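User: Is it possible to get a 3D structure for a protein together with its bound compound? The compound here is nicotinamide-adenine-dinucleotide. I've pasted both below.
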Amino acid sequence: MTEVLRLKIIVTGGAGFIGSHLAKNLIQEGHEVYIIDCLHPYYSIERKRKHLTNIESHGAFHYSDLNLLNQDETMAEFIRIRPDAIVHLAALPGVAYSIEKPLEYVDFDIKATINVLEAAGKAGASKIVFASSSSVYGNQEGPFTEEMAVGKVISPYAASKFSAESFCHVYEDLYGFQMNILRFFTVYGPWGRPDMAIGKFIKQLIRGEEITVFGEGRARDFTYIEDIIHGIYLTLTVQTNSDILNIGSGRPITMDTLLQELKQHFPDMKINKETSRTGDVLKTWADISKAKRQLGYEPKVDFKKGLDETVKWAKENEVFL
Ligand code: NAD
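Assistant: Yes, that's possible. Here is the predicted structure of the complex:
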């Protein structure tokens, strides 16, 4: 029997959507999990506390309520923990808010990342996984291969992620980390972020409210949370080199298809159509062949099944929507 190596892993942003699912998975797989999260009020703090409680039901973990913008505290915490690996998910997400408050993204998505990279280096960590985004591809014809991100971005969120990626390269060189930059494509599923289209629509539909759809002809490479977690887990455990990898479904879903699927669950659905918002790209579409080759990554959950699971979860957890 091959013995699973027990890793000490810091998950920044572990009280968030992706981070809490990841923490559960890592605990189940026998790793030692250290969550760092300041419970940023971008969306409900109650929801984030509930994420932490959900993790607890899967086993013990360590939690620090720490803002990674605090350089000294971040350094001290990393040196105290001396992690083997760091999955850096903490960030301010969301395109729309980044247009309103661009400087907050310089703080939370760039400066905090630099603090994490410096602290990781001083603490002797060997592996970093950085959560980047499909938004770094801007408005281009897909499928997007990793080489297609050239900085022609259209929102402060995307600009901050692209810049943070550059800092990852700098520190990879300085400290010799194995650095894996994962570009996630529109993640959805149970406990999905309430500011994102699927989460927002389902909440409104459960309440019998009209939903507002921005922009005709849009499409998203919606990726189910389990597939994202699988991609991160493989990155942590499979022997691989530093690289940038798309973690998506590889199957873009048009807004019309999303609405048709939602209508199966909510037949009385009412829709208000508006023009597209600044900063939103028209279509995302991941080329996932590199992740398949290097990690053996294979998305498993098709969109219909993923959406069914998400609606089921939302109906059972209405109080947290
Ligand atoms: P989330 O908002 O649910 O989680 C982020 C967590 O980070 C939050 O709990 C927040 O409190 C914490 N945080 C933010 N700044 C912090 C700081 N300075 N110090 C400590 N904690 C801090 O978001 P998510 O959807 O789980 O996204 C996780 C990561 O994946 C983010 O980097 C996001 O940009 C990236 N990403 C997400 C998606 C998606 O579709 N959800 C797509 C592409 C990329």
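Residues 13, 15-19, 36-40, 42, 48, 67-69, 89-91, 93, 108, 112, 131, 133, 184, 186-187, 193 surround nicotinamide-adenine-dinucleotide (CB under 6 Å). The radius of gyration is 19 Å.
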